[in-house]
Amino acid sequence: xxxxxxxxxxxxxxxxxxxxxxxxxxxxxxxxxxxxxxxxxxxxxxxxxxxxxxxxxxxxxxxxxxxxxxxxxxxxxxxxxxxxxxxxxxxxxxxxxxxxxxxxxxxxxxxxxxxxxxxxxxxxxxxxxxxxxxxxxxxxxxxxxxxxxxxxxxxxxxxxxxxxxxxxxxxxxxxxxxxxxxxxxxxxxxxxxxxxxxxxxxxxxxxxxxxxxxxxxxxxxxxxxxxxxxxxxxxxxxxxxxxxxxxxxxxxxxxxxxxxxxxxxxxxxxxxxxxxxxxxxxxxxxxxxxxxxxxxxxxxxxxxxxxxxxxxxxxxxxxxxxxxxxxxxxxxxxxxxxxxxxxxxxxxxxxxxxxxxxxxx
Length: 361
Known about the structure:
Layout: E1 10-17, E2 23-30, E3 33-40, E4 46-50, E5 56-63, E6 66-69, H1 77-82, E7 89-91, E8 102-105, E9 108-111, E10 134-140, E11 145-154, E12 166-174, E13 178-187, E14 193-194, E15 198-200, E16 202-203, E17 214-216, E18 219-223, E19 238-240, E20 253-254, E21 261-267, E22 275-280, E23 287-292, E24 296-300, E25 313-318, H2 331-334, E26 335-336, E27 341-351, H3 354-360
Antiparallel strand pairs: 1-2, 2-3, 3-4, 4-5, 5-6, 7-15, 8-9, 10-11, 11-12, 12-13, 13-27, 14-26, 16-25, 17-20, 17-22, 18-19, 18-21, 21-24, 22-23, 23-27, 24-25
């Protein structure tokens, strides 16, 4: 096993794929969680994914003579079961919240929380994060490794208020300095289904806090919400950042003491079509680039986590805003017709010198 987990935390690991490649893939129990580990045998960089939800548990890269943790995942099986903070979770078939757990789609009303009292009606981030996924394929090469997870558990009768049939395939890739996800849904039912995806990673640089970290997000607008963090109606939800300098990260600046739980929109893509947000540790000079193909970026400064308050920052690529299932202006984005498939791609790259990387871009 690599240095990702101490020997006492990794039990009964078995080799999945190795060969002559510099990357290897092993499966076993990590922190008491069934998972799969990818290791770059040349540098020691490594990542561990739980089978449950294909959830990233840990990602480390070499820096400054040792391995540095870049994400803050679940530390135990108990945390994974509790799902507090949805640490590094894949969000599907919907990201974020649905107002009161109810939505109307194609002229029909649906209730995701039947029998739940009004005061307790809270549902968010979909079902996939709590499903045991099948590892259906692995691939290793000199440039990286891939894990392919699959589930067909989203079917009529499986989840109250969601009588749609989807298959989900998650392709998780690791290179020497990066991770990538491709989340693909296919509607295998007979009727159109509402669907959207996202990723909820928490990023950090070792064990330091986040206040000094510098953030850049190429967004010109944000989603205006009410006191319950639900988007305002229709066009009222789309607001310019010009009047909210506290949410404006078009130029890199330190997070400071800002408490953020906001969705940014109006994102500017680079020439290759990818949207890139950047997080930098000015003390170390290193940084992360979080990329996505389309969608929006949700920011959360981890102020309400049960563990590790403000020790990481969530930079979340999402296809849609909160409560998209109830919004006519999101219908084209969420609609998945019978037989159709849709993919959402995102990922992250580590840079030992982010400032120099950006200056060359």
